[in-house]
Amino acid sequence: MFGGVAFMVNGKICVNVSGNDLMCRIEPNCMKRLLKKNGCRAVYMKGREYKGFVGISEETIQSKKELDYWLELALDVSKRAKASEKKR
Predict the structure, then answer these.
(1) Domains of the chain
(2) Is residue 73 within 8 Å of residue 79, measured between CB atoms?
(3) CB atoms < 10 A from the CB of 20, how many?
(4) Whether the Cβ atoms of residue 54 and residue 43 lie closer than 8 Å to each other
(5) Nearest-CA neighbor of 13 among 1, 29, 30, 28?
(6) pTM of the shown model
(7) 12 phi and psi angles, rounded to 5 deg
(8) What's the rounded Cα separation, in Å, for the pair 6 and 12?
(9) d(Cα 70, Cα 54) in Å, to the nearest integer?
């Protein structure tokens, strides 16, 4: 669906690595604030914005501390998110 390598928590995508960029699942109500951060952008697929997901450019993540920031945000959301029921 997203391409690259996805890491799942509780049956939901937590983070995805595609090329040199990272995509993180975040709290949708934090999206506006996070999009103001340098190198952070909304994720679009098939012309539709994916609420609750942000893309982070390679240039933004230059240290373990910066990577940990984004991973902690994504893990926090993924721990609480419930997996969708499989469609029949």
Answers:
(1) 5-80 (3.90.1150.30)
(2) no
(3) 9
(4) yes
(5) 1
(6) 0.83
(7) -125, 150
(8) 10
(9) 10
Query: For the residues of the chain, what is the DSSP string, one character each?
Result: ---SEEEEETTEEEEEEETTEEEEE--GGGHHHHTTSTTEEEEEETTEEEEEEEEE-GGG--SHHHHHHHHHHHHHHHHHPPPPPPP-
Q: Tokens for 53, please give them.
A: 């997901």
At position 81, the amino acid (one-letter code) is A
- Over residues 20-67, the pLDDT tens digits come to 889 999 999 999 999 999 899 999 988 999 999 999 999 889 999 999
